[in-house]
Design a protein that fits this description.
single chain; 214 residues; alpha+beta; 6-stranded mixed beta sheet; 27% helix; 24% strand; globular
Length: 214
């Protein structure tokens, strides 16, 4: 039974946020490109499966939340997922009507279990000198278009914040584009303070490379 037909027969969907595995790399790359399209930044996109694999899954592996930590959001339509050591959080929600997911085949679980990937988070540690505590920086949080406005972004952000609090970290931070009013209001609704006076400064590409031999 396909995920779409299963969703049509049941209003209940289970969401599992879990630590990504190497088999999730093609999903991550496709969603990162979709995010670049949404942000109108595809001209900056150069990510490949091999570059994600080598940087997010080094050997030996680094401890999660104390290094680059990719998390993927899986949706189950027929039965609740069985928690595993890879599971960070599980929730369930109701669909008021069937959801049409045109990219379902591209994001179907490689296990053939009827699940579909709907989003991701990538975070890594930072440090606050004012607090003298480590924190987490969320580089990206993304939900694919058919599954937005279902509280899945809130679910993922809450799971990361809960983990940071459990680890005794001082704060969780991320950036938002100033034109993305919906995201800004969503983050404010989660209790986040949006700093108007801060601006991102970045050295990248040729501007960064010129320092290599200085």
């Amino acid at each position: 039974m396909s995920t779409l037909s299963a969703a049509a027969e049941s209003t209940t969907v289970w969401a599992e946020l879990r630590h990504a595995e190497p088999s999730d790399v093609p999903f991550l790359r496709r969603m990162i490109y979709q995010m670049a399209e949404f942000e109108k930044l595809t001209h900056l996109f150069s990510t490949t499966d091999s570059s994600l694999l080598s940087t997010l899954f080094p050997s030996p592996p680094l401890p999660p939340f104390f290094s680059f930590t990719p998390l993927v959001l899986y949706l189950s339509f027929t039965s609740p997922p069985v928690p595993s050591p890879q599971t960070l959080s599980i929730t369930q929600f109701s669909l008021p009507s069937p959801i049409t997911d045109p990219d379902e085949a591209d994001f179907a679980s490689p296990l053939g279990d009827g699940r579909v990937v709907a989003g991701f988070v990538i975070c890594f540690p930072n440090y606050s000198t004012f607090l003298a505590k480590p924190g987490l920086y969320i580089e990206d949080i993304f939900v694919r278009e058919p599954w937005r406005r279902k509280n899945l972004g809130k679910f993922m952000l809450s799971a990361v914040a809960k983990k940071a609090a459990e680890l005794g970290m001082g704060r969780v931070e991320w950036c938002v584009l100033d034109w993305n009013v919906n995201a800004i209001e969503f983050y404010k609704g989660m209790g986040a303070e949006v700093f108007q006076e801060w601006r991102i400064c970045r050295l990248a590409g040729p501007s960064l490379e010129k320092y290599k031999n200085d």
